[in-house]
Amino acid sequence: MTTGRLAPTPSGYLHLGNARSFLLAWLWARSLGGRVVMRIEDIDLPRCKREFREEALRDLEWLGLDWDEGPHAGDAIGPYDQSTRFEQYRRALDKLIQTGKAYPCVCSRKDIEEATRAPHGDEGAVYPGTCRGRFATFAQAAEFAKSPPAWRFAFEDAPISFHDEIQGPITIRPRDLGDFVLWRKDGLPSYQLAVTCDDAAMGITQVLRGRDLIQSTARQLALYKELGLQAPKQWAHVPLLIDPTGRRLAKREGDLSIKALRERGVKPEKVAGLCAYSAGLLLRAEEINARELSAAFDLKQVSRADSALPEAPQQMTGLA
Length: 320
Hints:
Strand content: 5-15%
Shape: globular
CATH architecture of the domain at 86-192: Alpha-Beta Complex
Number of strands: 13
Distance between the termini: 39 Å
Helix content: 25-40%
Strand order of the largest sheet: 3-6-9
CATH class of the domain at 86-192: Alpha Beta
Structural class: alpha/beta
Order of helices and strands: EHEHHEHEEHEEEEHEHEEHHHE
Low-confidence stretches: 312-317
Number of helices: 10
């Protein structure tokens, strides 16, 4: 059974770029007769708020998306909020520690920048492995730093290859990514560890997300291997939705949120049509609902190029 997922992060209100990615993920699963899981990715406790969680669910339901498991759907397997699953993530970390694939790290961002002057990747400066083999135990590292260290993944050298349903064959070298964080110094699990554990636990077979997360797929495939978990069979990384200046939409003041559109009385069919048009599924931005789009959805139609909004988000009065 094909199983996709929608996984909003409630650190702000969803914007059009988020809506487009979630719509495409939903269309991909539903067009194949698959199931959809809703998961709330709220491991960043200081930034994620209950208000944003509820608005994200409301936004996606308003857009015409539904799901078979998760909040508002009975929680058949759940819970589906990552903030309730830290025990599962800790067990995974302990396994990696026991097999020698995780090590304590006392380096700060400044330390990494100053030590390497390395090229930057999607997570900032590439970590050079300064603490790999440096400390015999976590306690020793904590004593050295006078504070709890982070845990990092000891990446192997072999390239990681996978097929992307939109971008084509992808090969990533671990040395270009560096040993990534598994557990933060502030006691929170990393996105990479949590997503890997949850996609496996929830039986996810396909993942569609933004092109900016391609390198995360390589990290997660390495974790699936080391943890002995079943990885999703299909991956698709869609181009981004940008504003006319070339800036990627983000959850910051001034960007167009789905909540703002709803409250202005914009029809969900207009938003779905704009998202589908920007992704290459329609010849023009016409009104259409998600169900109508799923009937003829073909992932091969999705554009491989980033798409710009027709005008600045603050000026898109034509949607109302």
